[in-house]
Amino acid sequence: MELIFFDLDGTLLNESSQITSFTQETLQLLSAKNIAFTVATGRTMLSAQHIIGDHNFDLPHIYNNGVTVYNPKNNAVTLQNLLDNNELDIIVSCALTHGIAPFINAVEIDKDDHHHTIYHGKTYHEVEKDLISKYFSKTKAQLLPLESLPNFSQVTNISMIGEAKVIRRMWEYLNTYESLVAYSGPATEGKQYSWMDVHHRLANKGTAVDNLKKQLGASKVICFGDSDNDLSMFALADECYAPENANSDIKKAANSIIGHHHKDGVAHFLRERFSL
Question: Which of 7, 36, 131, 250 is the most buried (most CB within 10 A)?
């Protein structure tokens, strides 16, 4: 059994953060040939599911760079390598010191369901306010002020957006902590902005991919990704491919460079690779 893992942003999705009709048709052709595939993304579950929800991703999904695994067949969520209170204090203090609003993603799991809450600090910039009004307020997540965050919450990650030079300073600082890892990149809102996600350092796509490989009994793993948070799954994959737009480290780690994500590079490669 070959098992394919897709990163989303910059890889499977186009410049508008969508799955194109050509890519969707390609996924349907994969399913028709019983070729297994799923996603391994840094996005939160809520962020990703409004994009992939109608596209028949039936196998377990990897979210938050491996912190969250969701099984659509039984609506079950499992969490690992969450941020503890001390780590939360470090990240939140860094954000507030730099005048950036932290968006703290927490998941509460009960016997039959799971609930998502986003705790956020005061928003100082329009790009942060737009994130709330144009996206967060339209999800199923409950939005609450930072002061409402209870002790020992199950926090998967903390997200931020702001001026690129400020986010860069914060990224450098937070990555000096042994227990933390911060990922960052250009924001779709404009080149002057960058996003950043901060996780526990033990949380990575590679561990989650390896666990799913064993769970599903796959003999071969094929991965697609474009950024640093994909390196851990590239390291264990039998085949790994980077789109033309990927960063240099990912390109060096890849078996081959494929087409640009703006041009359905992954879909075109799959059609040739599997004779779809």
Answer: 7
Q: How far is CA 190 from CA 61, 125, 161, in A?
A: 29, 14, 11
50-104 residue pLDDT tens:
888 878 899 999 999 999 999 999 888 999 999 999 999 999 999 999 999 999 9
What CA–CA distance (Å, rounded) separates 32 from 46? 28
Name the domain count of the chain.
Answer: 2
Residue of 217, 218, 225, 199 whose CA lies nearest to 79:
199
Sign of the torsion formed by the C-alpha atoms of 169, 170, 174 and 180 = negative
Q: Are residues 211 and 265 in the same domain?
A: yes
* Neighbour tally for 17: CB within 10 Å: 14
Contact 226, 261 (CB under 8 A): yes
Q: Which of 136, 170, 200 is the C-terminal boundary of a domain?
A: 200
Extract the tokens encoding 8.
């989303």
205-239 pLDDT, tens per residue? 999 999 999 999 999 999 999 999 999 999 999 99
Predicted model pTM: 0.89
Residue of 57, 62, 58, 88 whose CA lies nearest to 77: 62
247 Cβ contact list (under 8 Å, min separation 6): 226, 227, 228
Q: What is the CA radius of gyration of the chain?
A: 18
